[in-house]
Amino acid sequence: MRTGTPARVGQYTALLAYLVFLAFPFLWLVSTAFKPPRELGSLHPTWIPKDPTLDNFRQAFDEQPLLHAALNSLLAALAAAVVAVLIATPTAYVLARRRTRLAKAVMGWVVVSQAFPFVLLIIPLFLVLKNLRLINSVPGLVLVYVVWALPFALWMLAGYVRAVPPELEEAAAVDGAGRVRTLVSVTAPLLAPGIVATALFAFITAWNEFFFALVLLKTPEKQTLPVVLTHFIGAEGVADLGPLAAAAFLATLPSLVVFALIQRRITGGMLTGAVKS
To answer: Which burial class, exposed, middle or buried, applies to 258 when counting CB atoms under 10 A from its CB (0-12, 13-18, 19+)?
Structure first.
């Protein structure tokens, strides 16, 4: 115990420092969102607003169509999450159960594709969407989000499939169930935590995405929330700090709420994937 105490203290100290590092931007964002203009320009800023106000939120909604942009983001994120999961679940099942060279090559390509930067993909994606006449449309943006989320979704779900004992599927086959029936009735319920975690990843990625939305959406009525947030920055690069912080705080809430609601399923899925039969 004496030997492990310094190491444990060091671990907890490092963890606390990491948590502070992660929480600082969000806490400062919340503080800024409720500060009046005179406190925002103060040379001695404080953590807690001395005279908190909701004027920044009112001004943010008056200046920009935040609700409409949030609806666009919600539709794109939900559609991308649902489509990505529907495609990735059966594909990951096949890749995990069939240990062929082709399956290994596909999984290797899935891992390598995660290293590609956005800049390399935007031009070919733009040309494809142009030929499909999906430029400046939410469905086109959803298609891009699905393509971007699929590699990680496949890799993630394949790990959950491998954690499901094959004996359960063999028992279902003995009872006369086919591949599709086995996947739907036996494997899919056991993959529920992994499917939820994958859908959450796709949703949060699409909700927070900025680069593709900026390039592909030109009409203000179709722009998503991250793009609309840039409108609080003037032509000379001067930000309207109060309304910007208020709008950014509201844009962050959906991700936090969704994660808080299903964090138990994510934790359960991670533990399931870590236990071998």
So the answer is: middle
The token duo for 174 is 């003995």
CB 253 within 8 A of CB 141: no
* Per-residue tokens: 178: 């086919």
Terminal Cα-to-Cα distance of the chain (whole angstroms): 33
With 0.85 as the threshold, say if the pTM is over it: no
Collect all residues with Cβ–Cβ distance below 8 Å to 46 and sequence separation of at least 6.
Answer: 31, 39
Residues in the chain: 277
Q: Which residue has the tokens 């040309």?
A: 127
pLDDT of residue 276: 43
Give residues with Cβ within 8 angstroms of 55, minimum separation 6.
Answer: 36, 242
Q: Low-confidence residues of the chain, pLDDT below 50?
A: 1-3, 269-277
Model confidence pLDDT, tens digit, residues 95-120:
888 777 877 777 777 777 777 777 77
- Residue 52 and residue 35 in contact, taking contact as beta carbons nearer than 8 Å: yes
Give dist(CA 226, CA 261) in Å, integer. Answer: 23
